[in-house]
Fold this protein.
Amino acid sequence: MEQLQALDSLAVKQIKEMGEILTGFETKNRYSVISSDGSELYFAEEVGGSFLTRIFLKAARPFTITLNDPGKKTVLTLKRPFRWFFYELSVYNSEGTLLGTIKRQFDLLRRVYSIMDAQGQEMFQLFGPILHPWTFRIMKQGEELGKITKKWSGLLKESFTDADNFGVMFPAGIDVSQKAVLLGAVFLIDFAHFENRGR
């Protein structure tokens, strides 16, 4: 987790799923979390879950994702319960302590999420404008402080898989726990808004 403290941005790249391309069946998601200089910080993978859940619930499925450092030590665990619309994800540190939660809020036209700390107090909002479907602005009291952006993966990759790439620009001066929760938001956004695009 210490690596996050010094970073003001990073990239999350979904690892290409050849089995999914060849068979059309949903596989467990895997990601690489990379610093701005290209170093791999963490390897993230979906753990548990059943084949049938992935087939029938697809992107709405509940999941657990672990983020492991290069020494294969789990540094974060992300847990999402089953929800049809009001998506939610909780972020835990290596000791299993809750760091925060991301919750989708009701809005007819926009994609709005609350980023909550471990006590349930709102730290930030994620705001996804309708006219910029690839961007989620990190807001506090109406001011944009950072953003999460889906990056174009290339025509063939976009056409045949749901493998996605994201960039995260963190608000200045936030602590490592807040960065960890915002990093967790990337995975929830991927599942909630981009997971089933490559069909």
Remarks:
- The two ends are 35 Å apart (CA to CA).
- The domain at 2-194 is CATH 2.40.160.200 (Porin).
- The mean pLDDT is 85.
- The first strand starts at residue 9 and ends at 14.
